[in-house]
Amino acid sequence: MPKIRTLRTRKPPEGWDLIEPALEEFTKQMREIEVAPSESRRKVEMLRPIHQLNHQRSKYIYNLFYKKHEISRELYEYCLQEKYADPVLIAKWKKPGFEKLCCLMCIQKTNQNFSTSCICRVPKDKLDENRLFECRHCGCRGCSSGD
């Protein structure tokens, strides 16, 4: 999650003005999520919108650099250093089998029952078709690359 920025530590590289409006919109959405009332939700459901927005923001920067090649390496590294994107999640997306990974909590075996992966990492053809499965951490319904 990005820190609240009051003063930038260094000057942003060239091309920053192209992605700044989108990143400011993500920051605005994050603030709205943080101040939203959460009394009626369970503890695990309160963090779901934050995980989802973190995924969207990281995927936006990942796509701009690796898929569309619209930003420079310098700007990409600046975004990672300023915590606009999650570098560990992006590193997982580059590995085979993790292209659709929703959050890092789904692959941590310590957070799951029976020390296995999350239910959203199981391919949909292996699950019962009549039941809806949902990750208890982020609300994902399937981020397995085999889908």
From TrEMBL:
Gene Ontology biological process terms in this record: mRNA splicing, via spliceosome
Cellular-component GO terms for this entry: spliceosomal complex
Main location as per UniProt: nucleus
Assigned keywords, A-Z: Nucleus
Location(s) in or outside the cell: Nucleus
Entry-linked Pfam families: BUD31 (PF01125)
Family statement: Belongs to the BUD31 (G10) family.
Name of the protein: G10 protein
